[in-house]
Each structure stands twice: as C-alpha cells, then as structure tokens.
Amino acid sequence: MSSLRTAFAGSPEFAKTILSGLVDSDFPPVLVMTQPDKPKGRGRKLQPNPVKAEAERCNIPLIQPASLRDAETHTLLRRLELDVLVVAAYGLILPEALLSIPTYGCLNVHASLLPRWRGAAPIERAIMAGDSETGVAIMQMEKGLDTGPVFVQKAVPITEESTAGRLQQALAQLGTQLLVDVLNALPTTPTPQPADGVCYAAKLTAEDRPINWGRPAREIAQKIRALTERMPATCRSDTLEMQVLSGYALKEPASGPPGTVAGRDKRSIRINSGEGQLAITRLRLNRGKGLPMNAPAAVNGFGELFALGQSFADAGR
C-alpha cells in the first residue's frame, strides 16, 4: 500500500539506519520523533542523537517530546492523520492512548526473535547468553513490553566473530527490508507470540562490565564481544585498570588460578579462567594516553604489568 502516511520514532544508530531506509522507500515519514538532546563528552554539551541528525539532513519535521503523555503531542499526531507510526529503539514508553492514533497502529522493528529477548538490550543479551542466532521482528505494538503479535521475523546467525555493533548494523538493514514488506502488505493480520520461551533483555548497566574470571573463558569472550562498542568489559589488578576490547577462548586448560596471567605471545595476553584460558588481543589501559592498543603493544610498553602470575581477579564478579 504505497499511499500510507507514516511517522517515525527512534533515537540511536540502529533506528537511524531504519529511518534512512524508510525515507528511500515508498513510505517516507511526514514526521520524526526522537528523544531530547543529551549532554555528552567532557564539556557535557547537548548533542543530537543519530536519528535527529538524519531527520535534519533529510529536512523532515522533527519533535523531541520529553514525554509522550502530553496532550499536545497526541493532538499533533491526530492532525497528521497517520496510517502507521514506525518505532525502532525509541527509548520512551508509548502510552496506550497513542498506540491507537494511527489507522494501523504502531509497528515496532525489534532486534530479536520474539518472544526471546524482549526489552532494552536484545542484541547484547543474545551474545552474552551464547545464543547461536538472533534476528529482527516486525511487530504490532500493544500495552505490554514487546508482547505484541508479529507480522514477520527473520533469523541471523551469531558467530564467534559477531560483536553487538556488527549485528546491530546487519539487523537494522534486514529490519528495514522486512518493514517495507509489511507496509506494502497492510492491512494484514500478525501472529500472536508463543507463550513459551519468553525472556527479557535488561538494560545494560555498569554492573555488566566487570569480568568474572571464575566463569568459563567462552562466557567471558561472549561478554567482551557483546559490550566492546558501547561499554567495554573491564578488569583490574592492584595497579592497573584494563578495558578488554577483543579476545577469544582457548582450548588450553587453565594453568593457574582464575584471573592470573598464564602467558604472552606475539598475538595475545593469556588469562586463566574458571574453565580454560582467554586470549586478550586488544585492550585499553589507564596508563599513558589511554588509547586502544593490541596486546603486543601493551606488553612492549607495560610488560611488568602483565608478568606471569599477575592477578586481575580482584575486580571479578
């Protein structure tokens, strides 16, 4: 149905990709909603999020309501006579009164295979849990959190090289294609989600970052890949704080207590875990300029901090 009037609501990079695809489709939005600007950087200056920047680039009318419960926003949306409001990682709860304003309601582009990983951080939680696949779903929004019926969803494999950032881009591109297919097919009836297999992807917090070296190396590697782009996994010794940006599990058994340095080679620093060893290949230290570096550079510059047997276990959780 190429005559649909759409609006779009979203905020981060994932949503920006979908907005760009919607602009280039037969369903360009007549309005974009996104979260208010937030302070960033050392100067704490207000900066636009990726969706705002894209909307301004495309000259699309933009609003940034602090809440979606105010009558002014609802009145504006009614005046637009929308057929569909497309939502992708908006970050604000849509009240029930708003969901019913568009003719065909609100469609959410959600980065998981529902009902698994409803909630705020589905990509990261899927990687951290060791899932073999994730995906993207186009669902009809309702009052519950990601509980609505699904129009279509498609799987994407999670490999040992998958990071949250790489998966995010792939899922956003796939989600755009599926979204356009659903919009073309409206009106159509979505399928209710199964009652079994529900789990929630809690918002990421600082509590997710510390590495628990007592866990298997495989699980630690999953955490590193899930968090590296947004809030890297961390560990520390008595004298050193380290962000682990990339690493992989080794088959070699642990040669010492969890969290201790097992060895160093031309590619990595090896750390003992509760099961096996983790090879750290890229990291950032609270030393020098604090820039990302590969493991050999860290050893060359700060070799005494990675001596055999050195322990990073005191920050583990």
Tell me the CATH topology of the largest domain.
Rossmann fold
Helix content: 25-40%
CATH superfamily grouping of the largest domain: Formyl transferase, N-terminal domain
Distance between the termini: 52 Å
CATH class of the largest domain: Alpha Beta
Over all CA atoms, what is the radius of gyration?
22 Å
Mean pLDDT: 94
Per DSSP E runs of 2 or more residues, the count of β-strands stands at 17
Number of domains: 2
Write down the overall geometry: elongated
Largest sheet geometry: 7 strands, mixed
Strands across the major sheet, in which order? 5-2-1-6-7-9-10
Our estimate of the beta-strand percent is 25-35%
CATH architecture type of the largest domain: 3-Layer(aba) Sandwich
H/I helix tally: 8
| Helix-strand category | alpha/beta
Q: SSE string, helix = H, strand = E?
A: EHEEEHEHEHEEHEEHEHEEEEEEH
Low-confidence stretches: none
Structural summary, described in words:
By secondary structure, this protein is of the alpha/beta class. The chain has 2 domains: 6-201, 3-Layer(aba) Sandwich (Rossmann fold); 206-315, Formyl transferase, C-terminal domain (Methionyl-tRNA Fmet Formyltransferase, Chain A, domain 2), CATH 3.10.25.10. The chain is built from 8 helices and 17 strands. The strands form 4 sheets. Strands 5-2-1-6-7-9-10 form a 7-stranded mixed sheet. Helix 1 (13-23) runs parallel beside helix 6.
